[in-house]
């Protein structure tokens, strides 16, 4: 991997970091989350592709690594879907600053 | 590649060095990087854990002989069933086949000298030992009684102090998880990169396919268990509140986290067992396995589907309705690959030359018990029936049929099958079969009544019960002791063989996979040079030689050529 | 540290990889059970990628918890995220990105057998990691001082702050181990220098610099913190002045008229009075920040169906955010420390000139691990620091 490529990737990463800080200060509301995730994903892709040499990597290794994100999506997706489903039945409560009554401790 | 084309004169009567005795002394075992020795040490470890867990099971069954208190009070009963579950799951079933038999077999079946990372392999063994000791001490010393699942909010309640039993137990699980991950990682890399020339993916023995699928689950799911128990420990130590309803945390989330690992973990337990059965069925029927590709694919399919169905453990835990429906529907998809396997095993025996020796008896035992276990799973996967059956003895019976009737029986069968290879000794076949019969009778006596108990409403994890359940409970308890006796007979047969068993030939069963090409027990380096890869289920070139008391390749040159038997190569 | 084991067997793939079975004797780095260096390298590579998969899934649990609670109580996250120092987060991001660059460069050096370049790159990477930890220590201890703790210990009442002059005792405690290491490495450096062991003094020097970098990080962190403190004190001042004229500065989710019932003018004057004092006592300003937010959050939220605002700043609200914050960044920091340990091992091997065109696997594997740690931070930074 030539040095100029490493440096170019690094500069791009720094610029994207600046960009994500900048857009966060714009007060875009919900859009902010989406934008910062997109920027983070671009940064992550740069790191994976160039710093981690995935463009020169064997397809099998690339597939193995990327498939982990499929399972992460599965995990988070199902859990969030369920949590959204029973969300209305939850009571968000004010927690007293005193800890919950301490039952006798297991000796 | 003609080194393995053994003529009958190259017999086992020549004294060759083998991995058991090539070096001596405690350190040569404790610091060994040899996968076979590590596998053997794992075997001793998991069998000891099984002994502990099994004695605890007998304790539970004995206590349940009467409806009232016999010798355990409620608290002690909770502690005992927690210990039983935790020991059996984390210390026995999960490492049993992959770590013990897998470590021994994977490189030999591949014709390799060792696993890809021998030091990592030893490291994962010591992680297991360390984790096991830590875990057992924690459980015995602190008397944890949450059940092996550590469900919140009970486990996050203030009843367990800041550094209480939950923290110690979860740290033990964390360490054990790493052991499991490293084993899985090792096998994936080994199978991927160290197959010998000529062994394409679809020339691998099915046990390797099963191990490979298992390893995928171990690598993908176990880290989630790691973070789950870490968060649970942080819950106790730092009061992070993520799972604690006292702090607006969500205890149902804990169950999601837990079962995202623990449901796939069920397949970590059963898939290697299925792999063993695939080998046993084919070898002892002396017939090429029926539907090789389907069995191979179904292993991978089970591994993948296993990640989609964890919610069926939580139908009554407060999940959203839509999620329960989705998970229920997905659950049925797992039954397809499992059924494919069962049908293929049956078809393998059809018109085969079935040798009813001990391993085969255990394999048939497996087939019967696993089918019952699998089919009763459908009741529990169906939303409507699970509402009634959840947390009853029906569930207990179901998963014992699968875990014990499935994995354990397959494990014992596999142990008998590869015992001559591992130790170089033949066991007494008659007593082996007697043990199998006792296990079969005892097992069904123990757990069939529990289906009835459960469907009549007997809840699990209760120390006391109504008088009307007593008869069924007593049958179950009696069965448990028969089962225990059967397993002790099996243990006795194996130990007896070590002392009195006759020398095992290289290939006592007439199997065609590579591990039977090296001597029994194998030499330190397994193979002098890479062995010639043959179809793992082609039994035509094997002939029984009576002075060898085993099977020998008669026409090895023919079998190395895949074109020689195109119909088998394709199957 | 598993990859240490896995990577111990790595080998280069540019070499005479297809040499076959016979030439083991020529390749001291080739483990006995591999046929050729290529197989060894591929195995190590596959192994480390699978290990990274487990790492991704390991972190996924915390990301899951994060998304769950953020989707459930977005206003809590908006509120609590204000207490994270954005500038420090951005600085640390850049530090980690730079360390990734030096690590990638180090892999290149190893492939080209540039021994000195590799040692320098590893030293820079270690230094960046230490700076990162130093900054993190400042961030953590600052929060602990003002009671921004995990849910169970979260202090929702900021009017009972922990007053202290100068450095936080927490920070001093956290710096004990790096301090001891600093002294030990310095002594070691002197000894090796006297002995004239050039290789050892190279290692000792690098380690000394790494330990020093931790304190550099602490220093930078404190400077940033100070700057932030004075600027936010000004901001708080301005807000309280502004809303007399009803021109509240808009922050996402906080409507202008919330400021109307805002802070009484007295507090503003007392704050500006504090301003002069609080040049060094960095804890004061964020407290005012909390107060300002507490007041400004009295009004009903814009988010429909959300809990009452008074319930945001409590153990089960912002406290949960900080639980997640500490878990995610804490586990990440542990990975940084683990990475540093492995890098020291690489450093030792690099000074022995063990890596070359045919055998650079371990550097490559550790590099991959290090980039993954960076990768996770790339997501953590916007998700934790930049919620507006």
How would you describe what is shown here?
The complex is a heterotrimer of chains A (107), B (571) and C (388). By secondary structure, chain A is an all-alpha fold. Chain A contains three helices and no strands. Chain A has helices spanning 3-24, 30-51, 59-86. Chain B is mainly α and 571 residues long. Chain B is 64% helix and 1% strand. Chain C has one domain: Four Helix Bundle (Hemerythrin (Met), subunit A). The longest helix of chain C is centred in the middle third of the chain and has 45 residues, at 198-242. In chain C, 56% of the residues are buried. Residues 1-24, 241-287 and 291-308 of chain C have low confidence and may be disordered. The chains are: A mainly alpha (107), B mainly alpha (571), C mainly alpha (388). Chains in contact: A-B, A-C, B-C. At the A-C interface, helix 1, helix 2 and helix 3 of A face helix 2, helix 4 and helix 12 of C.
Topology overview:
The complex is a heterotrimer of chains A (107), B (571) and C (388).
Chain A: H1 3-24, H2 30-51, H3 59-86
Helix pairs in contact in A: 1-2
Chain B: H1 26-30, H2 35-63, H3 74-110, H4 118-142, H5 165-193, H6 206-237, H7 251-285, H8 292-305, H9 321-349, H10 358-381, H11 383-389, H12 393-423, H13 429-455, H14 470-500, E1 542-545, E2 550-553, H15 556-560, H16 566-570
Antiparallel strand pairs in B: 1-2
Chain C: H1 2-7, H2 37-72, H3 74-81, H4 86-111, H5 115-145, H6 169-174, H7 176-195, H8 198-242, H9 265-277, H10 284-296, H11 318-351, H12 361-385
Helix pairs in contact in C: 2-3, 2-11, 2-12, 3-11, 4-5, 4-12, 5-8, 5-11, 7-8, 8-9, 8-10, 8-11, 11-12
Structural class of chain A: mainly alpha
Gyration radius from CA atoms of chain A, angstroms: 22 Å
Helix count of chain B, per DSSP? 16
Largest binding interface between chains: A-C, 56 and 59 residues
Instruction: Describe the global form of chain A.
Output: flat
Say how many strands of chain A there are: 0
Quaternary form: heterotrimer
Order of helices and strands of chain A: HHH
Q: From the helix content, strand content and strand pairing of chain B, which structural class follows?
A: mainly alpha
Question: What's the N-to-C terminus distance of chain B?
Answer: 25 Å
For the largest beta sheet of chain B, what order do the strands appear in spatially? 1-2
Biggest sheet layout of chain A = none
